[in-house]
Design brief:
alpha+beta, Aminopeptidase, 5 helices, globular
């Protein structure tokens, strides 16, 4: 498996992985309508292509013999809460649900850290749902620590996002 920069030719597969992963891990009876509107918006072809070609973002994909297994969406942005000169946000790291546990996530994380280093960032940061235990354990293993909390995306959930960062 190799990690490579995504192209717009990967957009359909990225949208499929993102949509299926998000629905599988985050949809519940209380947030279904709100969540479906959200995934339709962020994975709409035009919206995804705009993010993929934006100056301040980059997409990496885990490619296994020509088949995209997962992706990382990176954005050069620093929240006011981090006293860092330059930050890279790991906006999304999603795998095809059938590929969890294959090492693809670790390869994407390693590549994300390397992109932060190569571009002179002092912090890599992300937001994760407090109840997403598997993701939290994964991020903690990579040295991320919580620095803030905020309401999560869906009001119906009354959930909390943890903001985590890692020194580069």
């Amino acid at each position: 498996m190799l990690i490579r920069q995504a192209s717009t030719q990967d957009a359909a597969r990225i949208a499929d992985i993102g949509r299926r992963s998000f629905i599988q891990y985050f949809m519940n009876e209380g947030n279904a309508s709100e969540l479906l509107i959200y995934v339709d918006k962020i994975y709409a072809p035009k919206a995804l292509e705009q993010r993929m070609t934006a100056e301040n973002s980059e997409f990496l994909v885990a490619d296994d013999e020509g088949e995209v297994q997962g992706f990382a969406e990176l954005e050069w942005a620093c929240p006011e809460l981090l006293p860092a000169a330059k930050c890279l946000k790991l906006e999304r790291l999603y795998l095809d649900p059938t590929r969890v546990g294959t090492g693809a996530g670790a390869l994407l994380m390693k590549a994300s850290i390397e992109r932060a280093e190569a571009t002179g960032c002092s912090k890599l940061w992300l937001q994760v749902l407090r109840t997403n235990t598997l993701a939290l354990l994964f991020y903690e293993r990579w040295g991320f620590e919580e620095f803030h909390r905020s309401p999560a995306k869906f009001k119906a959930d009354r959930e909390v996002d943890l903001w985590m960062s890692k020194d580069i």
